[in-house]
Amino acid sequence: MAGIARGTLALIMTLVLLWPPAAAAMAAAADAADDPASATANHRCLRCHADPEEKFHVRPDGSRVNLFIDIGKFKRSVHAKQPCTGCHTSVTKLPHQKPLPKSIGCIECHRTKLAAEQDTGSPTYQRLSTAVAQMESYLHSVHAQPNKKDISRINATCYDCHDAHNIGTLGSLQRAEHRLKNPEVCGRCHEKQENEYKASMHGKALLEKRKLDSAVCSDCHSTHNISSAKGDPMKLAITRNCGNCHEKARETYFNSYHGQVHKLGYTNTAKCYDCHGGHNIKNVADPTSTVHLDNRLKTCNTCHEDAKEGFLSFHAHGDPKNFDKYPDIYVVSKFMQYLIYGVMIFFWTHVILWLYRELKDRLQGCGHVEDVEHPDTVFFRRFHPVWRWIHALFAISTMTLVITGTTLLFSHTDWAKAVITLLGGPVIEGIIHRTAATIWITVFLGHIGIALYNIWRTRKTFRWFGPTSLIPNWQDLKDVVRMYKWFLGFTSRPKFERWTYWQKFDYWAPFWGATVIGLSGLLMFNPTLTSQYLPGWVFNLATIVHAEEALLATVFLFTVHFFNVHFRPEKWPLSTTIFTGALPLAEFKYEHTQEYDRLVANGELEKYLVKRPTRTVESLATILSATLITAGFLLLTLVVIGYTTQH
Question: pTM of the predicted model, to two decimals?
Answer without folding.
Answer: 0.81
